[in-house]
Amino acid sequence: MELETAALVAPVTSLEFIQDSFLLTGEGPVLSVYTLQPHPDACASVNVLQHYRIHGIRPRPVKKHGQSSTTEPNLFDLAVVGGKAVRLVRLHLDLQDEHQLYFEVLGPLMKLQDWVLDVRWLSGDKQQLLCVAVAHSSVVLLDSVTGNALIQRSCTEGCLLYSALLLVHESWADTVIVGGTVFNQLVLWKPGGGDESSGSEQRASVERRLLGHSGVIFSITYLQEKGYLASASDDRSVRVWGVGTLGGPGGICGDMNPTCLQVLYGHHARVFSVHLSLGKVFSAGEDGACLMWDWTGGGRVVRTLKGHRAGGVRALAVSERTGDGERWVATGGADGGVRLWRVDDSEESVQEAVTEKLTDLKFPDHGLPKVVCIAAAEDENTSWSRSKIEVCTDRGVVCQYSDGKWTILWQGTAEFQSYCVMETVTVKVKDSSTKAHLCAVGNLTGSIQVFTTSHPQSGHLLTGGAGKIHSLLWHKEKEHVYLLASSAEGIVYRWCIEVTLNEDCLLVLNINPFPSFLLPACAKRWLTAAVCLQEELWVCGDRRGSLLLFQDQMNGKETEDENGLVKKGSTKVCDVILQPISYLFGVHGKQGVTSVYAYQGLLYSTGRDGCVRVFRVCATPSKKLESSVGHSVESREQLQLEVLRVQRACKGMEWLERIMILDPEIPLEDENECETEKLDKWCFRDGEQKVREARFVIVGFHAVHFVVWDPVRQERLLAVPCGGGHRSWSLWPSQTGVWPGYGALVFIKQGAVLALQPPDEALCWAGKAGRTGGLGLREGIHGKGIGCVCRLGRIEAEGGLVEREGRHWEVVVTGGEDTSLTVLAVHLVSGNIKVLSVITDHISSVRTVTAVTHPEGGSKQSLSALLVSAGGRAQIQCYRLSVVWDRQRLAPSCQVIQVAQHRLDGQWEKRRNRHKTVKMDPETRYMSMAVVDVRTDCVLLALSCSDGAVRLFSVSEVKCQIELLWETFYHQRCVLSVATCSLEDDKGNRYLLLFSAATDGKIAAWQLTEALFSSTDTTRTELVPCLDFPAHQSGINSLAVWTEKLGQEEGGCLVTVASGGDDGQLTVSTVQVQVGGGGGLSQTAPCSNQLRLHLCSQSCIPLAHAAPVTALKLLSPGLVVSTSSDQRVYLWRVDSSSISQSAALCCHVADAAGLAVWQGEDAEGSPGCELQDKKDTDMTDQTVRGEDLASTAPCERGWVLVCGQGFQLLRVRNR
């Protein structure tokens, strides 16, 4: 059998631009090329360095015979380096069709005796010579054709180098090297100095020495036009040096006394990469940020580029500046992602929002400002420079800020001078292209003044009861708006307002009252948020934290005029008071709901409890009723609200205000759809999954800052020091609730109106550059290590391109040290990875994950899974995942529904007499998990715990509950792994066995029949293991169990337990199980000692791996897969008497920690892969094209997915 790579996600360690139109990336040993015009797209990939990571790509254009010097070349020779290897690859470009790109490997892998730091082509030699810098202060002259080292010259400074920069010209004698030593110094010397015939005996002396860094130096770059050198260091700094001319004819070593021109501090962690250009420095580091510095202007940060998840930026590339003064910046992250930005060298202003200087708009003495609004903030056609700021004071005065000055718009009567609330909105004038800005002001006596800001004197006075107007809300439709006023005793008054033009072209307000809403009785009984799904369905949020659903059944059904038009202003309609048909009381806590937003069939609510709740409107099946005349009448469907999942913001960010959609990938539905289709869009029936959750950012307050937070990348997109919550604010822009990547904030602080950027100033770079996160060329997965992985299943694609590209996608879930779960879809032919969803509910690292999966309705285009994850802080999370093929996006999509959660310390708080017991350790971790049994009403799970316990849980999706059934502390030390198996006797009785392994190297076997059925309170059941035997000298990290039924003469069955431990040993233990009298799980009171277990034999391979075995999985009976931190994946043939290795592979995933294996037939019939691990002889003269993905191969046996620092999907084939 053999293993080959089907997909790979690893840290991106090298990037290089070609012609501002192509980008080369190095991910593990895989070299890839992307075209950037007209839109970024992957074109071709090839494995060039076998088991080494690519750390450098050096292109050289190849001129064809007779080609003009002005013609752009379409051939590039690439020197690719990494580890101790160098390889040459030729890139073929088709300038007419950028997608017709392919790689050609020119020769065998050239292996050196030292780590390669840099490589350069010697331009003057006719033969292909490479100058290679290696880690032990040496430079090698390499013949790229034969792979032989012609000359090797060392430096008298014989210390280890962390980085090196070669400056070459035409010959070896012109070469100059700048090395970053382990002693935090930069040393400059000439390897080509002296007589070449002396060989490597002569050592070159140090010509220049640059001192100043307090940490090792990771990256060096040189700007020849200015004679400047830049270095990036472990001390979090970037230094710019004036060194003069380096290299060139004769190997010039620059100024005799080089000086440090600038020290740039701005990164919060180590700086890995630096690039120097005219007037600008680009640096990237472990903090995940790429900083653009204006170092000539005092070393200020001009722009911060963020877009990667945790783990930092490992690679940086900056293209040459084009005619428009812009250039590409590319970053490669530890999360395996590649992001692109378009930047302008003319950018000068610092854009770090937390240090942004706020502008006081000098509000005049018209009273204390209480409410601030930006007129037309939701209008996407209104620019920031044309926006107007409106403020309402405690004296009932509405002022407007425009063109740098304040003017009074409206001044209320005495009733408005002690208390007032204000809201504004922009609405389209009916039968016109113009728009009008409406303002509503409410007071203590129930009066509401509504007027247009262009004609405030011609307003309308509305009455909203006899008490205080607590809040005003606008809801915008196409050509009209709804005004909701929350008054005393929980009554919410509604009006529909249309703006028209009269004969004199003046704005006229047509106001029609609608039935009022009645909020549930509570202490804080007023409305805080509302959204209309259609004219008869409203979802609201109140100050008590409840979500309410109203259905206006009276709307439009009372009276009609002679033309058949509805008279919505009739007395009969406005006197009706509607009560909620469904509500979730206090779901957002006692601090209230702050917003409700509807987008693409789902609803999103925020509150001051620090949570975003994703929910929907569900329709229960309609029932047939008997009418008074005896006919069967179908009643209306009953609607209710259902919360799908809860998304928390960052720690300490409790006051959330709203969400904004970050990446609207699905186009909006057709606006001309009929009313029935509109209702179906928002009302879900049983078994329906029509939409997927959108990517959003969270807007709120974190301590004293106003923050826009990305919950997926766990980073701030905007932060303004405003003083914290409890203030009126307005953010521009907010068109259709989409976050464009920039914003201007206006807020009130200590009686002053402050703005992040005044409207009379032009927008900063963000207004031109788009989203903060840049353009995702390749999406990242986990920035930190992936600790566990689980396969959900396979879905088939539908669409026009699937026949050519392949139709099968594997859906997997990964959990990592970054406390997140990621749902992924892997295309089996191309190896493409799509992130379907990211779940961030865990408060500590995710260590284990499992799933119970079944197809939805038997369809191959969808599947549903009950996912359970566990990890640090003794936390368990349960979700229902529904994965379907999205025909609009031609990609898989996933909807996450949160089912239940459980924490051991939460259970301790509920116990009686808990003061008499010792509280559980809050640092308890769940180490592994296994499914014990799947039942109609629940799923039984066994978990191993770091506090020495083995615990059994019941997960009920119907009750939305996770319940602890049983626990034992038999091992008295950390339990590392658990595994289960099911046995059946001749009578059909079923028995369950649980195997647990701890850090003492022993394995215990438990019969779970009694623990499950002996009593209703199983938490007190004392259970003794049926068998306990040693298997390793130290901790056992993983178990794999399978059964084999014996013949009738022998009776019983054999259970084989394979285990891998910290000692690197693979042990196979065979246990014979004899079934005694009595029944199995079907009995309610089974007899004791039903099963008798006996250890028959043990065999082992002491050094199966060179490091601890971290994961072990069963691919098929007798075929086991193991992996370790030694980056090896082995297939083992196992039987009762022997263990033999069937296949081996050196994987490209560092710190391998988890495995997922499954059997599968050939995915497409011709399953080849462009990322194949081959011998050196196989790679010679090999050509890999982007479209050549299929090849004839033997039938596959299964799949192996290895995770750690990234993940790698492997095919298992018969030879």
From TrEMBL:
What Pfam families does the database record attribute to this sequence? WD40 (PF00400)
Gene Ontology cellular-component terms for this entry are:
cytoplasm
Q: Which GO terms describe its biological process?
A: tRNA methylation
**Can you say where the WD repeats lie in this chain?**
210-241, 329-351
Going by the UniProt record, its keywords in alphabetical order are: Cytoplasm, Repeat, tRNA processing, WD repeat
Where does it reside? Cytoplasm
Family affiliation: Belongs to the WD repeat WDR6 family.
Could you tell me which PANTHER family the record lists for this protein? WD REPEAT PROTEIN, WD REPEAT-CONTAINING PROTEIN 6
> What's this protein's function?
Together with methyltransferase FTSJ1, methylates the 2'-O-ribose of nucleotides at position 34 of the tRNA anticodon loop of substrate tRNAs. Required for the correct positioning of the substrate tRNA for methylation. Required to suppress amino acid starvation-induced autophagy. Enhances the STK11/LKB1-induced cell growth suppression activity.
Assembly, per entry = Interacts with FTSJ1; the interaction is direct, and required for 2'-O-methylation of position 34 in substrate tRNAs. Interacts with IRS4. Interacts with STK11/LKB1.
What is the protein's given name?
A: tRNA (34-2'-O)-methyltransferase regulator WDR6
Q: Which gene encodes it?
A: wdr6
